[in-house]
């Protein structure tokens, strides 16, 4: 006798269900990184890419947020 398996619908925004595997602390880090990237990083990077320049303050900001590894 074959058993029926229930399948969940495919989720394009999280196809591997990684969000369910994150702890609350990991979600906070993810949200902080996303907010920084959308609000502060993206507007500057596009312009710098066009002019082939680097703003080193980005690395300091990311370090202060703990995005470059544990300190």
Quaternary structure type: single chain
* Number of discrete helical segments: 2
Rg of Cα set: 19 Å
Could you report the average pLDDT, rounded to the nearest whole number? 88
Beta percentage is under 5%
Give the helix/strand class: mainly alpha
Number of strands: 0
Residue windows where pLDDT falls under 50 for at least 5 positions: none
Distance between the termini: 56 Å
Shape: elongated
> What is the string of helix and strand elements?
HH
Main β sheet profile = none
Helical content class = 40-55%
Description:
This protein has 71 residues and is an all-alpha fold. The chain has a domain of 40 residues. 49% of the residues lie in helices and 0% in strands. The protein contains two helices and no strands. It is elongated, with a radius of gyration of 19 Å.
Keywords for this entry:
71 residues, mainly alpha, 2 helices, 0% strand
Structure described in brief:
Helix content is 49%, strand content 0%.
């Amino acid at each position: 006798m074959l058993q029926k398996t229930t399948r969940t619908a495919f989720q394009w925004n999280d196809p591997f269900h990684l969000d369910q595997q994150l702890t609350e602390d990991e979600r906070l880090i993810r949200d902080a990184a996303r907010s920084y990237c959308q609000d502060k990083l993206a507007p500057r990077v596009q312009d710098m890419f066009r002019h082939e320049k680097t703003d080193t303050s980005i690395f300091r900001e990311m370090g202060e947020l703990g995005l470059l590894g544990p300190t």
